[in-house]
Design a protein that fits this description.
By secondary structure, this protein is of the alpha/beta class. 58% of the residues lie in helices and 14% in strands. The protein has two domains: 2-139, 2-Layer Sandwich (Nucleotidyltransferase, domain 5); 145-258, no CATH class.
């Protein structure tokens, strides 16, 4: 309304009254939205659609799911459901998925895009695909990336229980300390990338995973890393001296630099 008044200098625009706002304006807006939803529903038979699940835990501890339906014409909110009573139980979860698919009309549904990689939800989705052969179950891309990262971190922690990144209050020396630490774990890292657990992981088949694997197994890479460490670590020791609480004598600093 403010934009409308500013765009027509010299003209007087009458604002809707309270009666108008709660009278004809709201029903008209509802009617317009209902028409939009009907158009979306009618288009699903021609284009098919995806069911989108988005869940969270509210302040009362309830597990809630928002259900939306996407098709090329647009996205429509279907409803919200409280799954607290059966969250973690596969059979009721499967029944819930089936009810959603039936509500949207199963012949129009191509896939369900879930928001969680929990065992219950994944198993429920697997069973749904077995019962409804035309419906595909998948997980939101961000959740897939989190799952891939979690899998990789588990492999890394199994191979190297200690953190590879070496923290320091002096941020400028962290890369050198970390490289030195990685060098000390060379054997463990090479073994990890040669293991069957790595080969069957999702990340191993990606371009980034292949690049990491090739880098770790390239001996020339380790040789260059060793040269870098031999050059930088003595300088790191000097920087530590200069930034320490107990400042050493200037002669001692020069002696260290000379070394």
């Amino acid at each position: 309304m403010i934009k409308a008044t500013l765009s027509h200098p010299g003209e007087t625009i009458k604002f809707p009254s309270c009666q108008e706002l709660k009278g004809w304006i709201l029903p008209d807006a509802v009617k317009e939205m209902q028409q939009y939803v009907t158009e979306m529903k009618n288009s699903r038979a021609n284009t098919s659609c995806s069911v989108l699940l988005d869940g969270w835990v509210d302040s009362k501890g309830r597990n809630l799911i928002n259900i939306s339906v996407y098709c090329p014409r647009g996205t429509v909110y279907l409803r919200s459901s409280d799954i607290s009573s059966f969250n973690g139980n596969v059979d009721p979860m499967l029944l819930f998925f089936e009810e959603v698919v039936e509500e949207v009309e199963v012949e129009n549904v191509v896939q369900i895009v879930a928001y969680s990689t929990s065992a219950c939800m994944m198993e429920g989705g697997k069973k749904l695909m077995e019962k409804r052969k035309t419906v595909f179950w998948t997980v939101d891309a961000s959740q897939c990336m989190e799952l891939i990262q979690a899998t990789f971190l588990k492999l890394l922690r199994d191979a190297c229980p200690d953190e590879l990144v070496k923290p320091s209050k002096i941020t400028s020396i962290v890369p050198s300390l970390t490289l030195e630490n990685i060098l000390s774990r060379q054997e463990h890292l090479v073994t990890m990338f040669q293991s069957s657990n790595w080969r069957i992981s999702i990340l191993a088949s990606t371009s980034e995973g292949k690049r990491m694997s090739e880098t770790v197994e390239d001996q020339s890479c380790w040789t260059r890393a060793l040269k870098a460490v031999k050059v930088t670590i003595p300088l790191v020791e000097v920087i530590k001296l200069l930034n320490g609480n107990n400042k050493p004598q200037v002669g001692f600093i020069y002696g260290t630099l000379d070394q």
